[in-house]
Amino acid sequence: MATSLDIRTEPGTPVTHRRPGSPRRHRLSRLDTKFSPYLYVAPFFLLFAVFGAYPLVYTLWVSLHEWDLLAQEHPFVGLANYSALMSDGDFWNSVYNTLGIFVLSTVPQLLLALWLANLLNRQLRARTFFRMGVLIPNITSTAAVAIVFGQLFSRDFGLVNWALGLVGAGPIDWNTSKLGSWVAISTMVDWRWTGYNALIFLAAMQAIPRDLYESAAIDGARPSRQFWSITVPLLRPTIVFCVIISTIGGLQLFTEPLLFNSGTNAIRGGTLRESQTMTMYMFENAFAPNYNFGYGAAIAWMLFALIVVVAIVNVLIIRRAARSA
Amino acid sequence: MNGGLWKGTRLTYVALLLAGVMSVFPIYWMFVVATRSSDAMGEVPPPVTPGGNLPGNLDRLFANADAHFLTGMLNSAIVAASVTISVVFFSSLAGFAFAKLRFRGSNALLLVIIATMMVPTQLGVIPLYMLMTDLGWNDRLQAVIVPALVTGFGVFMMRQYASQAVSDELIEAARVDGCGTFRIFRSVVAPALRPAAAVLGLLTFMTTWNDFLWPYAVLNDPENPTVQLSLRALSNGYYQDMSQVFTGTAIATLPLLVVFIIFGRQIIGGIMEGAVKA
After folding, report:
1. Do A159 and B232 touch (CB under 8 A)?
2. How confident is residue A96, by pLDDT bands cut at 50, 70 and 90?
3. Transmembrane segments in this chain: where (chain B) (predicted)?
């Protein structure tokens, strides 16, 4: 029998017993090692191609058309949607809101997270308890957070205005002023993500070799000096990572501002579009009531471009800051 | 040594406690309002202890004709469970392939996966919506399940874990015994991946349960929402019965809180480990 040709078959193996060494099995197993890996990684690539990459690229194609949900024809209009956007005041208002909320929600968030991580990076009792304490906001749903904070910031019965009243300030009508709604929405984002980023920073801090600090201490560097001259520079890759992730998330903000504004004007971000972000403006145009897919798609690509630009600018700023530190 | 280089001073504890209180307070307050009547909103000073109105609030919540809250909870459970099982399975399988099998182009493919984690795919909602219309999936749960069945994050996380947690000798031994790659995955790799799979499962479940934007775009039938859409319907009413709305947010948050209290340590470990390797 052919089995005897297989070098792996030991001389006394009974031929009737089809051990893995038989040619058919052998060929199968070669096919298996050759092609199975592709089979195993294929589901991700297939799904990403169909539901991730294709829609994103096709958005560009749609944005070059006059594309209405109900219309039969979708005439090609070139860059007409984009040039219409350039002179669309509501669009620029949404860009302004997006950037404003982004700055208010990202800068304090990352600074606070650094500080919290530095506190957590000490010998502590009840370590897990404190870590869970700072992470808990992150596990609550964005919609629930937005509803609860919307109430905390409400004009008449909100706890924030009540607390302001105790110190003789306010009350502030958070919903109807631009800055007010920006602050309220950014607070939700800060609250939700600070602890998460703190844990990421903490993980990176723990990877910093201890002897660096020890020798710095011998040289007489105080803890604060050690923090700025050792911790922060060595954390740079992690900070860059967090900044990019926050940029991608922060510029696409949608749920918080939508639920902060209830009623028919919610998607407009308030009666005067006080807090309408770009994603909300995209939704307003692309879905109910307008169903103007072409215009919405153009907004999506403008937002994509903005994300790329802001991410690059942020990374450059951090690099420069770290070099001069 | 327990943690860092420096001793925590009394000030450290005070600051951390303060941060903890700030973190927990909105959630706590949500539960307080959920147990009170709607008048509690107007009280000065605001109530900070639970009341006895929870049963009444629950009755009104589940009877609410706009929110379809029970359907929402059920739908979210179905969606989050299917997505979690699928993500854990496919991510483990792909992670195993990237970590332990040799194949042409594996490094390039892994780079592509890492890059996809940075792509704001949310911006593709318009064609995705059109695609769902073509498939006839609008307003149906598969529209939110299928696109989420496997994630780049999951594959990457499992690859990182598999490359250090599964020994090559064990795989080689199984191969010599005549195991095919899938059998190796099932009998040797999967058991070793269990801790990471659990963390990935928890993170995936929470993310999926909380997802809002895509379900909001594609599930337009108010009678078939996910729980987050129910919350939106609740809070968007003309007449705002805040204790009822807060009962809704509290119930929708409860499953996540339970998961977090039981598995908090593992979730924190997962987030921090992922951070170091990323």
Report:
1. no
2. very high
3. 12-31, 77-99, 108-129, 141-158, 192-209, 245-263
